[in-house]
Write a structure and sequence with these properties.
The chain is an alpha+beta fold. It has 5 helices and 4 strands; from the N terminus they run βαβββαααα. It is 47% helix and 16% strand.
Length: 152
């Protein structure tokens, strides 16, 4: 059993001196001053003999309660919120991809004007776009690299 401090309104107002090598020091520890000793909680789901306690206690004391009155409506509402937030995230990601593609095109055009070969500038722009180091593999900007499965 555990004291129900929330219901009783207990606070950390009691003080006790810290003990070091069997002598009280000047440092003080705050303790909970319990204002009511009549309210306790029993955690039936953490005890090894919870089934015995449930056989003694009335059902209304340990019956699980509903979190929402209309569970189905709550699920539909949460799904609608996710749809809108995910749509917004996808739109932002699309804008970022388009901005990166424009930046890549601008760098390729600048490299073409400076006389660099177009394939070198594209590989360089791909590496900068993907944020990867030069590992010798070219990756498509629109799709992430696929992982190879290990042979079984």
């Amino acid at each position: 059993m555990q004291h129900d401090c929330r219901t009783a309104g207990c606070s950390a107002t009691a003080l006790k001196a810290q003990v070091q090598e069997r002598q009280a020091t000047e440092k003080m520890d705050k303790l909970i001053a319990h204002s009511d000793d009549n309210h306790f909680l029993v955690n039936l789901y953490a005890l090894h003999n919870a089934n015995l306690l449930r056989s003694v206690l009335p059902r209304e004391l340990y019956a699980p309660g509903t979190l929402y009155q209309d569970r189905k409506a709550h699920h539909f509402e949460a799904a609608a919120k996710l749809r809108t937030s995910q749509g917004e995230k996808r739109a932002e990601a699309k804008k970022r991809r388009q901005a990166k593609a424009e930046e890549k095109r601008a760098k390729a055009a600048e490299a073409a004007r400076n006389g660099e070969s177009s394939s070198d500038s594209e590989v360089m722009a791909d590496d900068e776009l993907n944020g990867s180091e030069d590992d010798g593999e070219e990756q498509d900007v629109r799709r992430p690299a696929k992982r190879k499965r290990a042979a079984r």
